[in-house]
């Protein structure tokens, strides 16, 4: 026989069930509101990219049932958005590559070695996160002028690598500290040196952290209009975010073309995020807790 449930237990169970239902409903309301404020603007931009400028002004919220492709043709033929795409991918991709390599090596040393001054290095790294980027623009720009790197790919890759290196080091180091010591000892017994251990053991195991860092660094580099306007303002190396700044001045109030340019700017980010999104939460959460 099952034990009888008292009236007090039934009342408590009913209250908790109601509270659970209310909390769940409230959560769905918040998520729906968030989706409305993020997904709908993206849909609005894509929808208006298939309209001419006049229809964007007069029928902004109507569906593009008869889509036109003139805006996309103009974007690639007249304003050469394809070249800006290549520039952005080269500079943002190069930044991600150097940040992951240098940040990964620094994180490996900080997380797996014990040496004098380790706490001081961590303090300096955390302190650099408090320095605003615009405070370093003048000395960085003068340094780039002296080295003749202004308006080159390196003129944006190097400053952005330096700016994102602290974040990458701290995140990856936090994750590497959770890797079992026994795995490192087994690699030593198999004859691995430190470089081989980093490449064959720590990088594959820390893949979620590397993926998390890569998407954030790519986003920040790809969307960095401030640095792009200062360090690479020539057309031959102009990234796509800087090109958006030029469309309104070159083509007046062609809102259809502007919507198309914004759509083409956002699409690579969405595609990249879809491929590595499963690693982001794992990399950020597991690296925050030491095992």
TrEMBL record:
GO terms for biological process: transmembrane transport. The lineage of its organism: Bacteria, Bacillati, Bacillota, Bacilli, Bacillales. CDD domains: TM_PBP2 (cd06261). Signal peptide: none annotated. This is ABC transporter permease subunit. InterPro entries: MetI-like (IPR000515), MetI-like_sf (IPR035906). GO terms for cellular component: plasma membrane. The chain crosses the membrane at residues 25-46, 85-108, 120-141, 153-176, 197-222, 255-276. It comes from the Bacteria. Residues 85-276 form the ABC transmembrane type-1 domain. Keywords: Cell membrane, Membrane, Transmembrane, Transmembrane helix, Transport. Its main location: membrane. It comes from Paenibacillus dendrobii. It is found in: Cell membrane. Belongs to the binding-protein-dependent transport system permease family. The keyword RNA-binding does not apply. The keyword rRNA-binding does not apply. It is a multi-pass membrane protein.
């Amino acid at each position: 026989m099952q034990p009888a449930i008292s009236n007090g237990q039934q009342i408590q169970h009913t209250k908790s069930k109601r509270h659970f239902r209310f909390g769940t409903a409230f959560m769905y309301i918040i998520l729906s509101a968030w989706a409305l404020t993020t997904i709908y603007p993206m849909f609005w931009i894509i929808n208006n990219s298939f309209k001419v400028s006049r229809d964007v002004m007069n029928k902004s919220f109507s569906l593009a049932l008869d889509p036109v492709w003139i805006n996309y043709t103009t974007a690639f033929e007249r304003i050469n958005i394809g070249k800006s795409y290549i520039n952005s991918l080269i500079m943002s991709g190069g930044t991600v590559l150097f940040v992951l390599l240098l940040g990964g090596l620094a994180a490996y040393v900080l997380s797996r070695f014990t040496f004098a001054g380790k706490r001081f290095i961590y303090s300096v790294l955390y302190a650099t996160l408090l320095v605003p980027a615009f405070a370093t623009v003048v000395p960085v720009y003068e340094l780039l002028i002296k080295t003749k790197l202004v308006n080159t790919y390196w003129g944006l890759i190097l400053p952005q690598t330096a700016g994102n290196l602290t974040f990458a080091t701290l995140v990856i180091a936090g994750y590497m500290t959770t890797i079992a010591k026994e795995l490192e000892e087994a690699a030593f017994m198999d004859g691995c040196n430190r470089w081989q251990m980093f490449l064959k053991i720590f990088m594959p195991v820390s893949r979620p952290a590397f993926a998390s860092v890569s998407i954030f660094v790519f986003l920040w580099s790809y969307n960095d209009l401030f640095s792009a306007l200062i360090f690479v303002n020539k057309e031959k190396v102009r990234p796509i975010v800087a090109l958006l700044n030029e469309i309104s001045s070159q083509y007046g109030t062609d809102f259809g073309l502007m919507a198309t340019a914004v759509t083409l700017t956002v699409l690579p980010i969405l595609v990249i995020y879809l491929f590595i999104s499963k690693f982001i939460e794992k990399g950020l959460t597991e690296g925050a807790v030491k095992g």
